[in-house]
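USER:
Before I trust my own judgement here, I would like a peer's view. Write it directly below this note and I will take it from there.

ASSISTANT:
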Amino acid sequence: MATTTAVSSNIRAGQLPRYSPVGLLILSLIVTGGLFLVFLLAGMTAAYNVTGAIFFGLVLWVVVTYVASFLVEGSRRAKDRLVTALVCTAFGVALIPLLSLLVTVIARGAERFDGSFFSESMRNVTGVGGGAIHAIVGTVEITLAATVISVPIGLLAAIYLVEYGRGAIARGITFLVDVMTGIPSIVAGLFAYALFILLTGNAAYRSGFGGAVALSLLMIPIVVRSSEEMLKLVPMELREASYALGVPRWLTIGKVVLPTALAGIVTGIMLGIARIIGETAPLLLIAGFTDSMNYNLFNQQMMSLPVYAYTQLTNPGTPTDPFFDRAWTAALVLIAIVLLLNLIARLVARFFAPKLPR
C-alpha cells in the first residue's frame, strides 16, 4: 500500500493542479481588467475598454500558462499546454467581435423594438415614429422568391454532378459554380438590372422579383456546393442495395439518397439564405427603395431590411437619432430572422432525417 502511494505521488509530482488553466485565466483577466481600470481612473482612456481587457487577458494567460508549465512540468508538457492555450485563445479572440456585435446591436436596436416598428411603414414619416413593416415584408417575399428559384436549380445541379455527371460537362459546371461562388454581389445586381432592361425595354425598371433573381445568383452556387458534398457522403452501399432490388436510379435518388442527405441539404440551404438575406447592393440596383408598402413582387419598387437600414443611416433627417435607432432595430430584426431560420432548419433536419440504428 505504501509502495502504491509513493508511485502515485511520483506520478503527480511535477504537474500543475487540474484546474490551474482556469485559475490562471481568471487571474490574467483580473490583472488586465485592473490595469485598464487604472488607465481609466488616470484619465489615459475616455471609457473602459472591455474588449481590450479581455484580449490582453487572453494573451497574458498564454504567456503565464507556458511559463508556469515550463517551470513545473518541463519543456515538453509546456509546449503541449502552449498549443492548447493558443487554440483556446484563438477561439476566444474570434468570439470577441461576435459577442461585441451582438451586444451592440441588441443594446442599440432595443430602442425601437416595439409594436409600431412591426406595424407601421415610413410613409409620410420624417422624424420620430414610423416602422419597417414594409421592409420586413419585402425581405421575406424577396428571400422566399430567391429560395424558390435557387433550391430546385442548385439541388438538381448537385444531383447531376454526383449521380450522373461525367466528363467535360461536369467539369464545366463545377468550374462555373466555383466562379459564381466568388462573384461580388454588385455584379449579380448589375446582371439582373441589365437582364430586365433587355426584357422590358424600361431603363427605370425596378421590382422585388428582379432582386430575387439577383440574390438567386448568389445563392445557387452555395446550394450546389453544399448539396453536392452531402450527396457524396451517402454510402454507395445504400445505392447498390436499392439497385439490387431492381429500383431504377431516379427512384433510388428520390427515396434513398435524398432522404439520407436531407439534414445536410437543409443546412446548406439555410446557409445560402443567411448569405443573401443581408445583401444590400443588388437590391439597391434592381429592387430600389420605397417608404410605402408593396406586396407585389413584379411591380414597382420594394423595400428590404438591409436597404432600409442603409437608407436610414445614409440619409438621416433632423434630428438624426430616430433614423439611427430605426437602422439599429432593422439590423436586430435581420439577426432574429436568421436565428429563426436556423432553428427551423434544425427542426426540419431532426424530424425528417432518416432514423438510423446506432
About this structure: Residues 133-352 form a domain with the MetI-like fold fold (CATH 1.10.3720.10).
